[in-house]
Amino acid sequence: MTRRKFLNHAALGALTASALTAGRSAEANGEKGEMPLIVSTWPFGKAANEAALKILLQGGALLDAVEQGIWVTESAGDASVGLSGSPNAAGVVQLDACIMNGSDHKAGSVAGLEGIRHPISAARRVMEKTRHVLLVGEGARMFALEEGLESVELNSRERYDQWQKQRAAQRAKPAEKKPANHDTIALLVLGADGNLAGGCSTSGLGGKLPGRVGDSPIIGSGLYVDNEVGAAGATGLGENVMRYCASFLIVEFMRQGMLPHEACSQVIRRIMRSEPKGAKLSINFVALDKRGRYGAAGTDEGFQYSVTTPTSSLVLPNPGLGPSDR
Ligand code: SD4
């Protein structure tokens, strides 16, 4: 199947999939969805969503829900998020993360952060305790240590040996199609009070050049939250996201009246129009709006996303771009 066929086929399949219940039918009808609502990238987002929901149901703050939800993925050790994520070309794990709060439009980010267990917490501290938005590298690390965040010794012999083994395994299957060497959690939360917040965390592209920063910690690229409209987050090849400020654009398309799935699809179409790579961009997005409607779209066949409300917690398939081009 060609990729374009997949995208349209997936869109049709998605309309009939039984998993597409509450929120998406509400989306299709333009109705109000259930709240609180948490939407995140990939199946591993489900456990993060559920942790976030628990905090909200206990009366916790939106930002606590975002931060502690993402902790789950950062600690899980089975994704390219957190310290067990994919090392760069020098064998070092460099982490990127950001957080954004809708009600006051504040944001914080860290990039190229080494040896800190929870980069999302470092990003939150940047937002709440400094007058800056983005700290990088050693400065970010020193700040996180000053803030008392948990650190881990990275350059141990054990970790180096582990990396060498992983590297050998990666070399053995160079033809792998799916970007299995990089996944990111972008997690969006709509509280019962109608406020929005979101976070994003990743170890980025495996084998990246030391110092490379992707879309994930860049506000407007890997994540964007606007309390008036909605929120969007990204996963995939950061270089193809950040050149288009894709999450910002999704929110702006929703502001113009598009539903979340439509907005994600339109941004992908927009990017595809000017990209020689066509559909081989590896860009995937999740979005929700202020009314509790949500959606996603991606160019990776294997992309899935997680949606959690007080009555259900689902992993949904990539619905593709949909048949229409508006
Ligand atoms: C990056 N966007 O660093 C991240 C990686 C990712 O699914 O999301 N992979 O480019």
Detailed description of the structure:
This protein has 326 residues and is α+β, with helices and mostly antiparallel strands. The protein has a single domain (34-317), classed as 4-Layer Sandwich (Glutamine Phosphoribosylpyrophosphate, subunit 1, domain 1), CATH 3.60.20.30. 36% of the residues lie in helices and 21% in strands. The chain contains 10 helices and 12 strands. The protein has helices at 3-16, 22-29, 45-57, 62-76, 119-129, 137-146, 157-172, 238-242, 246-255, 260-273; strands spanning 37-41, 95-101, 106-113, 134-136, 185-190, 196-202, 223-226, 230-236, 283-289, 294-298, 304-308, 313-317. The strands form 2 sheets. The chain has an 8-stranded mixed β-sheet with strand order 4-3-2-6-5-1-11-12. A 4-stranded antiparallel β-sheet has the order 7-8-9-10. Strand 11 and strand 12 form a beta hairpin. Helix 3 packs antiparallel against helix 4 (62-76) and helix 9 crosses helix 10. The two termini are 24 Å apart. Mean pLDDT is 86; it is low at 1-23 and 174-179. Residues 179, 182-184, 202, 204-205, 214-216, 235-238 line the site of N-hydroxy-L-asparagine.
**Average residue-wise pLDDT:** 86
How would the global form be characterised? globular
* CATH A-level architecture: 4-Layer Sandwich
SSE class = alpha+beta
Distance between the termini: 24 Å
Instruction: Count every helix, treating DSSP H or I runs of 4 or more residues as helices.
Output: 10
Count the domains.
1
Contiguous uncertain segments of 5+ residues: 1-23, 174-179
**Element order: H for helix, E for strand:** HHEHHEEHEHHEEEEHHHEEEE
Strand order of the largest sheet: 4-3-2-6-5-1-11-12
